[in-house]
Write the structure tokens for this entry.
Amino acid sequence: MDMHEFGKLLGWVNVALLFVAAAIFPARKLLKPPDRTLTFLRRIHPWAAGLLVVSAITHSTIVWGVPQFNSGQVLLGAIILAILFAWLGPRLRLPLWFKLHLIMPLAVIGLLIWHLWG
């Protein structure tokens, strides 16, 4: 497996990480505490999101070799924005931070579709 193929594989790992990180939102509606799946998703949600950012930057570097603007950069920006809403929102007491953080997965999934098939 050459580096370009590894970069493409890492891209699909990123898709899986994205869905693991985003799974908590529908799970919160479908499952009621103290459900084990919901507890597990709550624990791994921030870690999956952080690992996704690191993995996405690695994926971009391997596939492109040099920083280059493409749809993946927009997707990564939206993921980072969602993380910032979750991290800074409560600290700055922003009134709509949680709603913004809940809306971001919809935007991120739309951007993912654009990145993969656009």
The chain has one domain: 3-117. The first helix runs from residue 3 to 22. The helical segments are 3-22, 24-30, 36-64, 71-92, 97-117. Residues 20 and 48 are 7 Å apart (CA to CA).
